[in-house]
Structure formats: structure tokens, C-alpha cells
Write the C-alpha cells for this entry.
Amino acid sequence: MEDTLDFKLILPKEPIKDFVYCFSSLQNFTNHHQAVVIPNGRIDLIYSKTNNNQIRVALLGLETQPKYPDREVSHLCSVSFNPLAIEYIFGFPVADIINSGKQMPNDFWGLSIEDLDDFDAFCDTMTKKITALLPENVDMRKRKLFDLIFALNGEISVAELCEKISWSPRQINRYFNQQFGLPLKAYCKILRFQASLSHIKDGTLYPQLNFTDQSHFIKEVKRLSGVAPKELYKNKNDRFLQFLVYGRK
């Protein structure tokens, strides 16, 4: 009998919540070769164990399209970072790895392959490392920008956002393009799509958020997930891994 996909999720605690979205673990992954990961507006640092028992570390940029995970990986632990972490925790932009990623040193942040066997210990170790890297000061405009777009699921106009944080559209889009590789509007569409997933999972296949109409809703869902809402809802063979999150948080 095949092993069941084992998924775990732990939310971050203060003081790293502004920078970390969640920690997650996925085991017995090789039985889910049709798995699909869809955009969620976060940057993932993934520590994985390959089938030949080697550790692999990768930093994945933002996604604007579905992707299909590596079949050579059987077990992974990851940290999903909020965009604010890129400048203040990593200290370098990820614009060049949008829809892709880059290999990090196998001993990045001091973890070894044994650390992947205990997910709670992995989370504790990563929390301590990230806490040690926390900046003394954060640009309050950037903090408020992300607070607003997350709270509103991306449903805020650039003009309204600019007014609330006293930052011009040109400055905001320069920041997004330079740091993450996409404009603010495109990022907000990803957040709106993510917020729609819980509705789709519950069988609501018409828009609950600010889409123009049903046709626009279907088009956006298909662009970001690769399939229409109806097929996403069916989630045949549990291949859309993002659905694992719902019910765990």
C-alpha cells in the first residue's frame, strides 16, 4: 500500500510574524507525481531530502503561474516568507528568480539533513535564526503597505494605497519590480486569487471578491492555477497542494 502524503503546517510566533507566513513539512512526496503548486504571494526557502538521501536547499521566487514540484524529492521542510523578508532578512532582491528559484549552499543557515527529521525542531531552529536576523528598523511605509494589501486580499487600488502610505505609484512599482520582479497590481491579483481558493474548495464556483464578472473570474483562476474553477474544486488525486493549507490554520 502506498504511503499517504503527510503534510504539517505551523504558524510563526512573534516577533517574526511580519516576515514569516508559515512553516510547512511534506513527506512521502514521491507518490504525488501529479502535484501542482499554485501562486500564493510568498517566497519559499525549501530544505529537501532527495531520494538518494542528500540535502538540497533552494530559494524560490514569487510565482505568477502554476509549477510542478521535483519528483526526486521525497521529504521537505520549508519556510514561506512574506515579501518584507526579502529586503530585511535576506538582504538581496528575488526579481531575477520570479517563476523559478536558485540553489543555496547545502549548509545554508547551518542546517543539516538530520534537522529535516523533526519538524518541530526545524521550526524552532529556523525561528531562532530568523529572530537573530531581524532588523532594528523597518520602513513603516513598506510595513503598512503589506499590512493593507494582506488585510484586504489585494482588493485595494494603487491610488488608495498611495494615499494611505504617502508613497507615489512610481515608487511603489519600482520597489515591487526591483525586489520581486512584478508590479504591485500583478501581486495584488495573486492575493485575490489566493483568497478565492477557500471559496472554491467549499464549492463556490462564482466570484466572491472583486472580479469583473464570472468570465473574468474563470480567466484569472485558469491563468494562475492552470485549470478552471470547476476542475480546481474537484482537485483530482489531491494534486493541488495549496488546498492542504485549508483546515490547518
The longest helix spans residues 184-201. The chain has two domains: 6-133, 140-245.
